[in-house]
Every structure is written in C-alpha cells, then in structure tokens.
Write a structure and sequence with these properties.
The protein has 132 residues and is mainly α. It has one domain (3-131). The chain is built from five helices and two strands. The chain has helices spanning 3-21, 23-43, 51-58, 62-73, 90-103, and strands at residues 115-118, 128-131. A two-stranded antiparallel ribbon has the order 1-2. Helix 2 (23-43) packs antiparallel against helix 4 (62-73). It starts with a helix and ends with a strand.
Length: 132
C-alpha cells in the first residue's frame, strides 16, 4: 500500500504518526529543498519562473516547520483512541489545532472535518467515529 493510500485510511492520527516516524527525514528534506530552492532560484532565468511559485518557495521556513512539528509533538499521543475532547492532549486537540491553522491561511480556503465510522479491527475494538 502506498503512503498516500495509507494516509487516506488513517486520518489525522495516522498522519501525525506518519510525520513523527519520519521527522528526521522530513526536516532533512525540508532543509535540502530550502537550500536547493534558493540556489535554483538564483541561477534560473527570471522568465523560467512563475513568480507565484518562486514567492511560495522563498517563503518556506525551516524554523516554521520546526515550530509546527514541536506543536504536534506537544499533543503527547498519536493514539486513534485518545481524547477527542481535551483542548491540550490527544487527537482531538491536534486536529482542532490543525483545523484552526488551516482556517488562518486564507479566507478562501474551505476547511471542514470529514467524519466516518471505523469498524472494529486490529487494535480498534469498538465502532469509532473518526473525524479528520
């Protein structure tokens, strides 16, 4: 199963787990892209670049990525069955923070939760209403 397909099936909790398990690689890739992006922008012809994309690439901040990852870590658990009502811990707090962050990106961005039922399987022993 591809990583994309797996992420679609497990929602935010799985996504957080995915990010945490790949944190060193994500940070390394982000920093590499920053360095390559800046050197590529410097050497590319102005006519070759879409200015909107160049602006987006230039705005990537390794520091901001680190802040986001630290914030996600602060929710302490990635368990699908963790609290959905706590404002500070578990998947409920994490998904609300992600929701609020995304709402702040642009008034044109439509942000909503997608809820679905997860049937008992593996470590999930009861019906679970998952909202991502």
């Amino acid at each position: 199963m591809s990583d994309d397909r797996a992420l679609q099936q497990v929602g935010i909790a799985g996504f957080l787990s995915f990010l945490r398990s790949r944190l060193p690689a994500i940070l390394q890739l982000s920093l590499t892209l920053l360095v390559l992006g800046h050197s590529s922008l410097a050497s590319a012809q102005d006519s070759d670049l879409d200015p909107r994309i160049a602006q987006l690439v230039a705005s990537i901040s390794a520091e901001r990525l680190g802040v986001i990852l630290k914030k996600l870590e602060s929710f302490e658990t990635r368990s699908t069955l963790s609290s959905t009502t706590s404002a500070t811990r578990g998947i409920g707090a994490a998904r609300q923070w992600i929701f609020d962050e995304m709402k702040g990106y642009s008034p044109k961005l439509r942000v909503a939760f997608d809820s679905y039922q997860v049937v008992p399987q593996g470590r999930i022993t009861r019906m679970w209403n998952c909202a991502t």
